[in-house]
Write a structure and sequence with these properties.
alpha+beta; five-stranded antiparallel sheet; five-stranded mixed sheet; 21 helices; 12 strands; 14% strand
């Protein structure tokens, strides 16, 4: 792969410090003279023209790669093309040079490029395929042998370990006779190239099909120079006395340029499937058609702490400690949910997919396990918060209802107050009118209540009011509304009740109250009774105010007739 000519054995032997000084002086002189092309010292050959044309093609490819040098693999590829450019240009000048010393000096300088090519190619393949595990630590170890080879080229006049001699050939060619250092360098170069090819071949199976074309381009680009180098080293070069490797590298650079334009080389960098799997936060389990574990990622290993290597082992055995997980794996549910308790409690959502080959045959399944423990805990906390909020809302509603009841009820008797009576009477009267039904109003007043307060005190009066409130709540119908009108006066709204029905109900209340007071007061309040007046819609009145007035008239009649009785307004009008 390097520019030296095939070996034929030792030809000359020079040594000593004097010789080193002489060679160094001659090299400096040749370098100075090489800056100007002298038609006497230079000759244009087919080989030199081909090499310079090849250098031009590499320069064009380098111009395309240079803007992408910061991409993954872009740095090593740029270095590879620069090294090839140096190698090709200096080899072309060596082909054109006539003087032997000039040729040898140019060959020594060309080693800066030629020995760097396999290193840069190896670095490019490793970096582009994301196979960093192939790299030595530290990386500069790769450059030890190339650096020693360059040193050997410039000090060859002293040790003769790289070139043992030189033989002029027809057509301005120079045959380089190789020593041990050359074969060490060649062996190292081929080791790097073979390693790079292996890296690319392994990467083809790890990456998505869409990126495999790029890898095949890299392999094809590497194969041409390798074949040319082998042909040269074995003495089979199609151009006698000339290494075709730089020219074949130029052809390979055309393939790289095509890949840059058509396949997105250095633009769309392939991401290894294994790298993606290992970096996933979800656990991944791949099973073959026989239920054996084909692949697990790092997250799965961390979650389940499996003993030893698991690839190739039956999943039923390796996951026996998680029966719920195995049930989910073997079940038909497309997205099962599983709870595992060891080594840590986790709630898992499982997504599954089938693995089929090109013929559609089932080859296994892929399961992706997502840890939803945090989500489940959040849902649980949300449910608990919702329960607490619902309880609080119910408490607030209860309090609101209590407050509303307090606002509508009399605190002493527990009956509705006058405000509620006024709202309800108008509403019930409108309903009675709409439905064509009667409505009766009973106005009640407790007899001798003032004398009770004067004789026994207001506490006794309050007790009697509470007893009456308890009594009337037990005597009214579900649809009736009992209200404290004020002081010792009460109103009873009786929807759908005729005057006769209302009078009888009021009479029952009067009799029950007359029996209650002596017993409840231990016969201390024997004179406390009640009087009631009854008025009805539509026969007596058709407005709330008129209905109350008529009931009050009937009550007044009951009082005037001696108290402790119920009087209907209809009887008042008949007597008058």
């Amino acid at each position: 792969m390097l520019t030296d000519r095939p070996s034929r054995g030792p030809k000359t032997d020079r040594s000593g410090l004097a010789q080193i000084a002489q060679d160094s002086a001659r090299n400096l002189k040749i370098i100075a003279e090489s800056a100007v092309i002298d038609l006497v010292e230079w000759t244009i050959t087919a080989g030199s023209v081909a090499l310079l044309v090849a250098a031009a093609s590499m320069l064009a490819t380098l111009a395309m790669v240079w803007p992408r040098r910061a991409a993954v693999g872009g740095g090593p590829l740029t270095g590879l093309l620069l090294a090839m450019l140096v190698w090709t240009v200096l080899t072309g000048l060596e082909q054109a040079a006539v003087d032997v010393d000039t040729k040898v000096t140019l060959s020594a300088f060309s080693y800066f490029g030629s020995v760097a090519v396999p290193v840069f190619f190896f670095l490019f393949c490793v970096e582009y395929t994301q196979s960093d595990s192939w790299l030595p630590r530290p990386r500069w170890l790769l450059w030890i042998i190339p650096a020693l080879s360059v040193l050997a080229a410039f000090t060859n006049g002293w040790h003769h370990q790289l070139w043992t001699g030189f033989e002029p050939e027809p057509d301005n060619a120079l045959l380089y006779l190789h020593g041990p250092a050359f074969w060490v360098m060649i062996a190292y170069a081929y080791v790097l190239i073979v390693a790079a090819v292996v890296v690319v071949i392994l990467a083809i199976g790890r990456h998505d099909r869409g990126y495999r074309g790029q890898f095949w381009t890299v392999l094809w680009s590497a194969s041409l120079p390798v074949l040319g180098s082998l042909a040269y080293v074995l003495g089979l070069s199609p151009i006698p006395g000339m290494d075709p490797t730089p020219i074949l590298f130029a052809i390979a650079s055309i393939g790289l340029a095509w890949s840059l334009l058509q396949q997105g080389l250095l633009v769309v960098v392939p991401i290894a499937q294994a790298t993606v799997l290992q970096n996933l936060q979800d656990a991944v389990l791949v099973l073959d058609a026989e239920g054996r574990i084909a692949l697990v990622n790092e997250t799965f290993t961390q979650w389940f702490v499996l003993p030893g290597p698991v690839v190739g082992q039956p999943a039923a055995e390796m996951l026996a400690d998680w029966p719920d997980l195995m049930d989910a794996i073997e079940g038909d549910d497309a997205e099962p949910q599983v709870k595992i308790l060891r080594p840590h409690r986790r709630f898992l959502d499982i997504s599954r997919g089938q693995v089929r080959d090109e013929r559609g045959r089932l080859r296994g399944q892929v399961l992706v396990l997502r840890d939803v423990t945090a989500l489940r805990m959040s849902e649980r906390q949300l449910r608990e918060a919702n329960i607490r909020l619902t309880t609080q809302l119910q408490t607030i509603q209860t309090l609101q209802e209590g407050l509303r009841e307090q606002a509508l009820r009399d605190a002493l008797t527990g009956l509705f107050n006058r405000r509620y009576m006024e709202e309800t009477l108008g509403r019930e009267l409108e309903r009675a009118r709409r439905d064509g039904e009667p409505l009766s109003l009973v106005m009640i007043d407790l007899d001798h209540f003032k004398a009770l307060n004067d004789e026994h005190g207001h506490a006794a009066g309050d007790r009697v009011l509470r007893w009456f409130g308890d009594l009337i709540r037990t005597k009214v119908r579900p649809g009736d509304v009992a209200c404290r009108y004020g002081g010792e006066e009460f109103l009873l709204i009786m929807p759908a009740a005729s005057q006769e029905v209302a009078r009888k109900r009021a009479e029952e209340i009067r009799v029950a109250f007359a029996r209650l007071i002596p017993i409840a007061s231990d016969h201390q309040y024997v004179n406390v009774t009640l009087s009631a007046g009854v008025a009805s819609y539509p026969q007596d009145a058709d407005t709330p105010s008129e209905l109350r007035r008529k009931a009050d008239v009937a009550l007044y009649q009951a009082k005037a007739a001696g108290r402790d009785q119920v009087v209907a307004y209809a009887s008042v009008t008949k007597s008058s």
